[in-house]
Amino acid sequence: MPYDAQVIADHGFTPEEYAKVCEHLGREPRYVELGIFSVMWSEHCSYKSSRLHLKRLPTKGPQVVCGPGENAGIVDLGDGLCACFKMESHNHPSFIEPYQGAATGVGGIMRDIFTMGARPVALLNSLRFGDPSLAKTKSLIHGVVAGIAGYGNCMGVPTVGGETLFAPSFNGNNLVNAFCVGILKQDKIFKAQAAGIGNPIIYVGAKTGRDGIHGATMASAEFDEASEEKRPTVQVGDPFTEKRLLEACQELMAGGDIIAIQDMGAAGLTCSSLEMAASGRVGVELDLDDVPCRETEMSAYEIMLSESQERMLLVAKQGSEDRVRAIFTKWDLDAAVVGKVVEGDQVVIRFKGDIVAELPSLPITEDAPIYDRPQQEPKYLKVAQQLDLSKVPDTTDVPGTLKQLVSSPNLCSKKWIYRQYDHMVGTDTVVLPGSDAAVLRLKGTARGELGDKGLGLSVDCNSRYCYLDPQEGAKLAVAECARNLVCSGAKPLASTDCLNFGNPENPEIMWQIAKAIDGIAEACEALAAPIVSGNVSLYNETQGQAIDPTPGMALIGLLDDVNQHCCQYFQKDGDLIVLLGWFQPTLGASEYLATVHGLVQGHPPVCDLEQERQVQDCCLQLIKRGVIRSAHDLSMGGLAVALAESCVSQEGQSIGAHVAWEPEERTDLTWFGETAASILVSVSPEKLPLVIGQAQASGCPAIGIGSVGGEVLQLGDEAAIPLTELSDWYWNSFEKLV
Amino acid sequence: MKFGVVIFPGSNCDRDCHHIATTVLGQTATYVWHKETQLPDIDALILPGGFSYGDYLRPGAIARVSPIMQAVVRFADQGGTVLGICNGFQILVESGLLPGTLQQNEGLKFLCENVDLEVVGTEHRFAKSYEPGQALTMPIAHMDGRYVADEETLKRLEGEGQVAFRYRGRNPNGSLASIAGITNAQGNVLGMMPHPERCAEDLLGNKDGLGVFQSLLP
């Protein structure tokens, strides 16, 4: 049956891709088959623009139990325990319908984790919004935050950290990247490999409706004025059902009935059945008449492409059907046998007695088009990278400038956001949101003299750095994530990435993607934090305006003993403040230039990964040995902002500091210039020699720059900022904004 | 001592309460599935926090008709110790074991933060470890924690010493008379919005909540 060009284009195919579909089938596709190819070969599901480049990422290491390719990555935590984690975007749906878009993003990432047998223990998120003074931005913030809260809180999984940043390039495309980590036993990992001819395929969870049809295709195109009309392609979440699904899966997984299991996320039943068949190298037969539906008169096309949430597909052992049904009935959920594993490599789908699709699984999942798209250095870059400081007046009012920065949307406290998230459920959140990294306790892991183990979690990316230098910016994102972890006492273990870019068919965007991947590869290799899972979100463009490149990174780290954690807050009067590492401030790409002077120009800080490794080693050893009382990395806003945060960012407490450092060249460069490979620590005076000794052993510089105490933050001779004012700027600015 | 922890569909602090009873206090604890109609042999029952039935209709409104609740009411009527935390408190007011109701927070947002509390009435079995007027800090995490009751009920609660905890200083959710927790007239049923199980260990930086559980130990 021939289709006209419009139908083919509506399914997201180029004429060449459509020809390839016909070639694989040896005929024109049936309508259901056309839909199946459409979602499976969408950018979202097939990674057709990025796959070639993603191969450059380091994915191996002794700690890696399961690398990219599964639902999520798995790393070894020792003693038979593993962590399973991934970060995923839900950008397009969240812009169209902020509450449900964000909520289902959180629901989807959690399913990826518990499909593998893990119990989710923490969520983080990375958000980007446009200009916060716009009414549209405010409504997006309210909707997205409430959506994340609504889903995560109900699930009882704490949202323990994240980052939220603002820049005009996100006006037409906000970003919602959700990260989840779960814990599982190494001998209880579940995968999506169907096996065992004759074994039943069982559908469990919520019923199928018409929501989210072609969501993956929608997420693989640019936005235009008609995008709001795509609201029906956004799914609706029901966290109460997902909570029951989680508990039922955990109960079922404790027994031996499951051969394979796969969640129904993007492309729903299509993706889960095809991937289970392909990875098991077997055939699958499905009868859609047996799929539990919540709407009447659904067509085969709709059932196959629905992205209704809170559903799973599993292959059970023959004879296990009743046990599976009993557990799901206990939790008031559907469980229906919808097909079986068969010999061969075909996926055969029947509906009302007819065969509506008959396809080989491998070509669809593994022979999707791969593009080596043309790349070209963006024209804006050379101009934007030039920064003539002689045209930028130095600050003459350090307290005033500090006020501008500390109360700016990017740097002020995001308590208004995180207090909407239950960040304490589970009673394992040892370091609450607001410090460099979240720290979680792993109950029941104490050994001998050591207390329970701990997990450090951090997400980071500076989109402005990446706009001005995608490769260095991506390196810096990895480096800062790792630095955040060591500042909390965790040794970086592994990474996940969520790559958010514009339209890859534009060579300038493709260049950004390729460079960013190079940067991530280099930094993850150098810092021994391989990538074990990830996600790519492209086409983040509205009417030709692409977002700033945002290769979001999330790293997890391990604490041998969670009691040995550390926070960024100064603790005690009289402690000395020491700056570890290579303080090489630059104003290029800085928050100061953007906020105070309205300039997005220059080069981001230099990222020397050897220096990074050394300063991180030094800090980690100092925390493990119990030498220092606080550690905070220098990042956006530079030295002055890091000091301010160490003084006032601990809730309910503030403590002053006196830094006797006089600027040499420019005042703004010293206080607000940004640098990598630098960590601010505080230490009691008698332990100072231990800091100096460790710094020498780790090969990193250490200089004393001041002391903790008093009621003001004193920067050099001139500037003395009362803590009451500093606290007010930091704590009360965000609420006024939204 | 034997604790029971009820699991409704959507409960999510059940494991946390179990942890406090067993690992922290060294007692035994049994989970009780909501479809049961009898309670096992226990000395105290905890209705944990969470989102029973997804908070659909009203928080606690559907859980109150779960089969186990008839047994819970009998247990309470016979003087059994019942502690309802957060959603557990909501279920207790919906079931009539405690007076009043819990409505949406004043600011219409979910709130998760540490709040300052004052121990008010101490003539009940959950307060043995506290002094009257003692200042505490505990976390809250709820969307519907604004306690509301008619004038007469409030008068009775205040007069009979049934107000167990009050928010001190800032009232985070607009509760009537800053009420954070109340007991029944007999003092064997306590409902509270703050989460004592989240602040009962040194590692978490605050042990102010431990007293609620310790008070129950013989």
- Tell me, rounded to a whole number, the average pLDDT of chain A: 95
Instruction: Examine the coordinates and then state which fold CATH places here, giving the name of the CATH topology of chain B.
Output: Rossmann fold
List SSEs of chain B in N-to-C order.
EHEEHEHEEEEHEEEH
> Strand order within the widest sheet of chain A?
8-10-7-11-9-12-13
Write down the Rg of chain B. 15 Å
**Biggest sheet record of chain A:** 7 strands, mixed
Radius of gyration of chain A: 26 Å
Question: CATH homologous superfamily name of chain B?
Answer: Class I glutamine amidotransferase (GATase) domain
Number of strands of chain A: 28
How many E strands of chain B? Answer: 11
Q: Return the average pLDDT of chain B rounded to an integer.
A: 97
Shape of chain A: globular
- Indicate the low-confidence ranges of chain A by residue numbers: none
Number of helices of chain A: 26
CATH architecture of chain B: 3-Layer(aba) Sandwich
* CA(first)-CA(last) distance of chain B: 8 Å
Give the CATH class of chain B.
Answer: Alpha Beta
Supply the helix-strand structural class of chain A: alpha+beta
Please give the count of helices of chain B: 5
Q: How many structural domains are formed by the residues of chain B?
A: 1
Percent helix range of chain A: 25-40%
Question: What is the secondary structure topology, with strand pairs?
Answer:
The complex is a heterodimer of chains A (738) and B (218).
Chain A: H1 5-10, H2 15-25, H3 31-40, H4 43-46, H5 51-54, E1 64-66, E2 73-78, E3 81-89, H6 91-96, H7 98-115, E4 119-129, H8 135-155, E5 159-166, E6 175-185, E7 200-205, H9 215-218, H10 239-253, E8 258-263, H11 268-280, E9 283-287, H12 300-305, E10 311-316, H13 321-330, E11 334-342, E12 346-351, E13 354-360, H14 361-366, H15 380-385, H16 398-406, H17 415-418, E14 429-431, E15 438-442, E16 453-460, H18 463-468, H19 470-487, E17 491-500, H20 507-526, E18 531-537, E19 541-542, E20 545-546, E21 550-559, E22 576-581, H21 591-597, H22 609-624, E23 630-633, H23 638-648, E24 657-659, H24 667-672, E25 678-683, H25 688-698, E26 702-708, E27 712-715, E28 719-722, H26 723-737
Parallel strand pairs in A: 4-5, 9-12, 17-18, 24-27
Antiparallel strand pairs in A: 1-2, 2-3, 3-6, 4-6, 7-10, 7-11, 8-10, 9-11, 12-13, 14-15, 15-16, 16-21, 17-21, 19-20, 22-25, 22-26, 23-25, 24-26, 27-28
Helix pairs in contact in A: 7-8, 7-10, 8-10, 10-13, 19-20, 19-22, 22-25, 23-26
Chain B: E1 2-7, H1 14-24, E2 28-33, E3 44-47, H2 68-77, E4 81-85, H3 87-94, E5 101-103, E6 111-119, E7 135-142, E8 146-148, H4 151-159, E9 163-167, E10 179-183, E11 189-192, H5 210-214
